[in-house]
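Fresh eyes needed here. Have a critical look at this protein's tokenised backbone.
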Amino acid sequence: MFLWGTALSANQSEGGFEDKGIGVIDMLPSGKTRFQVMKDPTLHEEEECYFPSRKGIDFYHTYQEDIQWLAEMGINSLRLSISWSRLFPTGLEAEPSKAGVRFYDCLFEELEKYRIEPIVTMNHFDTPYYLAEHYNGWESRVTLEAFETYSAFIITRYSRFVKYWIPINEINMALHLPFVGAGLIQQSNSASIYQAIHHLLVANAQVTKFAHEAGNNKIGCMLAAGNTYPATPNPEDVFACLTDDRQSLMFSDVQLRGAYPKYYITKLEAEGINLNIVNGDLEVIKKNTADFIAISYYNSKMSQSKKSGIEQTAGNVFSSLKNPYLKTTEWGWQIDPIGLRITLNTLYDRYEKPIMIVENGLGAKDQIVDGKITDEYRIDFLKEHIFQMEQARQDGVEILGYLTWSGLDIISASTGEMEKRYGFIFVDLDNEGNGSNKRIRKASYYWYQQFLKGKFSS
């Protein structure tokens, strides 16, 4: 069965802060310092500010109505995340929170009622802040061991509902956003980041081992994906793109091929970094490779070997040279549907493992006019990307599913804003969390509903 659905994350939607511990993303303020803090929390200077992930869109209390609306749209799958810090507030508890267990029990039962298959992310930028503060997050094996306890619990309890699991959301973000991606507060040298990355990769392998032994579970490695184009045909620019793409491909190389690639080992040696690799780490990585590739895809990138006068533009964390052949969103992200086809083919050629698109969508400022939101721009974006995905399937790429980002408007991870809206369903909240929290179906909701009816009736 092909998975047609949508997606959201706990930290951007749930709220319910009264019943959970603090996750690293709960420490990200709204406003101009947010992106700096995503990399390094010591750069936070504001004394009083709004922390949007602590409120989200109150999905913790509205999940029944929200899932009903999503079910009426016609999806057969929903990617979501379990909040590690909701179940184990510090990460070190011997037993999970009863309130947290009760919530996820009810959430999965609700999805089952509507025959919606969950695709579950175990850690979507939600490492307990206690582990970051006391052990510098994933640099320590304490965090790795705590994650083993947490992941074993949720697999054991929820595998009757869940087949597809993603241990770490956008695992390559640990390199670019070490606080959010790896819970690193102390970042005095790059060795801390590379050690944390090693522990994340070991964790993914250990989860895979446990999940396979526990039953018919499928484990995915997830990348923030998107190919890099050279600014010119100059071979130096082409090699610069190869180098840039390897920063992400290293993570999937390890998880899908079962070993560190030579180019990465050479890089670490050149930088004088010696990883603390415990006996058994490399063996568990070798024997427990992932079953599928999960990707978020929003944009491609362009780079050059030397600095030039080409304008820079934004993207999914990764800044890029501006490609003159592409349009951009209101936030400067380049819109490249064909880039999705290129990315899918590149990954499938490299690994020959099935791919699941678990995030793809358009962030835009939606306007209510006469009580309606006519977001034709979002419909056009999704149509173009779905067409290119279908082209990739015709190329021979094995694709498991296509999940849009996102089902409802939720807090933007990169900016903390509500006005940067991705959903099929409008949520009446502003950037400071003010508003009625009322839900309104957008034009894209009805378009996707009709689209899915056509897919499921054919």
